[in-house]
Design a protein that fits this description.
- The protein has 632 residues and is of the alpha/beta class.
- It is 42% helix and 13% strand.
- It is built from 18 helices and 14 strands.
- The strands form 3 sheets. Strands 1-2-4-3-5-6 form a 6-stranded mixed beta sheet, sandwiched between helices.
- The longest helix has 23 residues.
- The chain is globular.
- It starts with 10 loop residues before the first helix and ends in a 19-residue tail after the last helix.
Amino acid sequence: MTVLTNDPRAFADEALAGFAAAHAEEVRTVHGGVVRASATPPGQVAVVIGGGTGHYPAFAGWVGPGFAHGAACGQVFASPSASQICSVARAADNGGGVILGFGNYAGDTLHFGRAAEQLRAEGMDVRTLAVTDDIASGQADNTAPRRGIAGDFSVLKILGAAAEAGLGIDAAVRAGRRANAATRSLGLAFGGCTLPGADRPLFTVPAGRMSIGLGIHGEPGIAALPLPTADRAADLLVDRILVERAVAAAGVAGSDRVALLLNGLGGTTYEELYVVYRRVAERLAAEGLTVVAPVVGEQITSLGMAGLSLTVTFLDEELEALWTAPAATPAFRRGAVAARPPRTDDLTTTHRMPPVVPGGPVSRALGARLAEALLTVRDTVVAHEARLGDLDAVAGDGDHGIGMRRGAEAAAAAAREAVALGAGAGTVLAHAGAAWSERAGGTSGALWGAALTSFGAVLGDHDGSTVGGGGAAGRDSRTGGGGGVPGRHDSTAGGGGGVAGRDSRTGGRDAADGAQLTRAVRAAVDAVLRIGGARPGDKTLVDAAVPFADRLEAALPTVGFAAAWAQAARAAGEAAEATAMIAARLGRARTHGVRGVGSPDPGAVSFALIVAALTPGTPDSPDSPESSEEKH
């Protein structure tokens, strides 16, 4: 259990600050993570790795000569954001290109992929490598969907050594991918882990039982078995991994030499690990395998989870040389690495935010209303944080509630700051989207960030294209109507939820404004579909978002925007609840899809809660008499 915390929401930031202070001679902090404190030879390929907090020594503990050049560090069990990854990559780049290495989880794939696109747009040569070693999360004949667990260590060590050896970016990433193809892992758990600030573990293991095939984010295993002796646990791990021996060794000419990691997950003693390793070594020798430079200890943990995992990587001559090559990091040392001079360059300019675009008067007014709507979003998420976390813990890692809260709080704050700087509506939402993505991390952070940004892009910053841009903002609330952004009624905001529109006595723009806002909703949902890759029926946010957009478009011509929004919100709520009957096909819950049947998807539920709260006239919306006059 995670006992020593201050504010649980600050746990990741405070842990990183303490780590950097303890290892100031080896790492330097940058926005989003750490980089080497020592200078790197010009032209050397930079390896930037990353993932969520809660896995130490992964990932910051692996930064140093012979391993990684930098690590992007997300919130607890949440991937770092694309902007954090970009910041670390800019600081790590030495002119030889950058390879981004990470475990194969939906959020990491999204954020590292978006970061790669952004960095390429800036002129940087970038490759990506997703580790897929977990045999419990996919079939042997299709390893691409598999998760990255403790194999991250072995694969990324080899990748880092390839860069250190002076290989070019293509040769280095090829070595990393060969290592990944030759790596297999399996984990066992005897008890779950507890998130900072939580009062119970994400899952429990009954006395006398163990969970097999667990994830490293507190996800439960795929099966429960009687608790074995140490030797029988070792036999189980070896037997199941060696089922794939021929496939794993195929890319290294059937080699019988292997790298090995017996990894503790945070709550298993080193003595226990050594008892297990004794038997693992015996079994591998009996199978005709030679273990090269084994590593026994904690390298990729899951907070305080009681458990362990075995990782085996089949080696040819090239991979063996890279596996045994020297490395010097805060958490892993092998051989001797020559001393290097310290970095002296300025690392404060690696983080870049969207510029603040001054808006026209109407667009600024709309931006202010949107900022108020984001306060409603924030308050809604906070009110339902515990429920969303509980839903996520059924088949995932239980962090959806806290992740949504971090994102919504950051988005609301960023929007208010942009409004204070005179930003138009598009820029307000661009800043809100960037902040949500950054602070939330994970899949939901990427999707909500992209949705807000895409919504704002349709609205723009200029009065000619902004909702209500045909004239003075607002319309008399006594006239009702359907224009404007949902979530507020007053004499300067369109009746029926509006920020926009104009007084109906001057002709009004209700229909045009409603159409534009509906286009913005569709753009936001399309961004989620494009970036996340999910489709209705996958048991994700999409299962509520698509029906919402469809109903909004269908109802708008006949009932006006406010009533159409209300209908769409009801449709989203019904669709979210209907996901209870679906088995997950994407994301971390995919591995445990059947376990989630009977419980609705947390992403779909959070979406439905938000759009319901923004419906004009509901108790949670800012326009309601029951809502406070001012939010802070």
